[in-house]
Amino acid sequence: MTGRVAVFGAGSWGTAFSIVLADAGNDVTIWARREEVAQAINEQHENPEYHPGIQLPPAIEATHDVEKAVHEADVVVLAAPSQTLRDNLVEWAPFLPDRAVLVSLMKGVELGTLERMSQVIAEVTGAGPERIAVVSGPNLSPEIARREPAAGVVACTDEGVAQMLQARVHSPAFRPYTSPDVIGCEIGGAYKNVVALASGMAVGLGFGDNTAASVITRGLAETARLAVKLGANPLTLMGLAGLGDLVATCSSPLSRNRTFGEKLGRGMTVSDIVAHTRQVAEGAKSCHSLRELAARHDVDAPVAQYVDDVVAGRMTAAEMMDEVLGRPTKAETE
Ligand SMILES: NC(=O)C1=CN([C@@H]2O[C@H](COP(=O)(O)OP(=O)(O)OC[C@H]3O[C@@H](n4cnc5c(N)ncnc54)[C@H](O)[C@@H]3O)[C@@H](O)[C@H]2O)C=CC1
Ligand SMILES: O=C(CO)COP(=O)(O)O
C-alpha cells in the first residue's frame, strides 16, 4: 500500500523515518523549518546537517512551505521537539487535510499541561482517536538511516488505521507491529529518555553494567507503574516501545539522552551541555513533566524525581546515586 506522506521535521528522526517511508513505497515530502535544509535535501539528496553521507531516495523531496508539504498527503507524520509541537501545530493545523491520519514520532510529555503528544494533537487539530497514531520503538535514527534492521510499533486505537499504517511503513529493513495501546507506547517512549539520562549518569560516574542494568530495570518498573495507572496494557511496556526502546537508548552512545546524562555524570552543567548540543534530548524536559504526572496520579517515581533534581541543578549525579541507594528498601514488585 503506497501514497503520499508529509513529514513535519527535517531533523534526525524526521529524515531517517522518511527513508523508511520511501523504501516502503511512499512519496514523501519533508517540511523543513529552515529553507536551506529543504534546499539541500532537494539539490544534494542528502541532509548534511543531520545525516551526512546518507543518500536520500529520489521519492523524498522537501519544502519550507506548509501547504505544499501536505498537498495530496493522506498521512501526516509529526517529528518536531515535543515542547514546540503545540505552537507548531497551531500554525500547521489550518493546512492539514481533513481526513489525513496524524502520526506522532515524538517521545515527550508537554511541560505544564502534562499531556502526551497524541493529546496535544487531538486538542489542537480536533482530530478524533481514529485519526491519531504513534510510531515508537528502539529506533536510533543513525542506524535507521543506514537501513540496519529494526522493528517498531504502530499504535492507534482504530485497528484498521493501525494496519493501514503498518503497511505504509513496512520497508525491507523496518518491521512494524500494530498495537491499540497509544498510552503505553507514548509513556514508554517518553520515560525511556529519562531513564537513559540516569543510565548515562551512571556511565559518566564510571560505573559498569550492573549499575546500568539496575537503573534500566527499576526504570522500567517505574514506567510500567505510571503507564498502567494511566490505562496502558502492562505487556506494552515489555515490548518494543517499552523494554526494547529502553535497552537501545540506555545502551547506545548514539542516544542523545544517554550522552546528556553521561556528561552530567562527568560533572558538566546543563547549560554547558545545552550550549554544545544542537539536537533535542527530550528527557531533560520530560523528567519534570513525568515527575509531575506521576505525582498527580500518586505514583512513586524516584527516577524521574532524581533526574529532574539533577537537571534542575538541585543535586549532582553522584548525590543522586547516594540518594537512590539510601532509599528505604521494599519488595521488588511493590
Ligand atoms: N533521533 C532519534 O533517533 C529519534 C527521535 N525520536 C523523537 O523524535 C522527535 C524529534 O527528534 P529528532 O528529529 O531526533 O530531533 P532533532 O533535534 O534532530 O530535530 C528536531 C527538528 O525539529 C526542528 N525544530 C527545532 N525547534 C523547532 C521549533 N521551534 N519549531 C519547529 N521545528 C523545530 C529542528 O529544526 C529539526 O528539524 C523527538 O521527540 C525524539 O524523541 C524518536 C525516535 C528516534
Ligand atoms: O528514541 C530514540 C531511539 O529509539 C532516540 O533516542 P535519543 O533521543 O536519546 O537519541
Automatic annotation (TrEMBL):
Q: What class of enzyme is it?
A: oxidoreductase
Binding locations of NADPH: S12, W13, R33, R34, Y50, K107, S141, R256, V280, E282
Keyword Plastid tagged: no
Q: In which pathway does it act?
A: Membrane lipid metabolism; glycerophospholipid metabolism
Q: Which residues form the Glycerol-3-phosphate dehydrogenase NAD-dependent N-terminal domain?
A: 5-160
Where does this protein reside within or beyond the cell? Cytoplasm
Question: What coarse category fits the chief subcellular location reported for this protein?
Answer: cytoplasm
**Keywords, A to Z?**
Cytoplasm, Lipid biosynthesis, Lipid metabolism, NAD, NADP, Nucleotide-binding, Oxidoreductase, Phospholipid biosynthesis, Phospholipid metabolism
E.C. code:
1.1.1.94
**Domain annotation Glycerol-3-phosphate dehydrogenase NAD-dependent C-terminal: ranges:** 181-321
Q: Provide the function of this protein.
A: Catalyzes the reduction of the glycolytic intermediate dihydroxyacetone phosphate (DHAP) to sn-glycerol 3-phosphate (G3P), the key precursor for phospholipid synthesis.
Entry protein name = Glycerol-3-phosphate dehydrogenase [NAD(P)+]
Q: Which species?
A: Nocardioides panacihumi
What is the name of the gene encoding this protein? gpsA
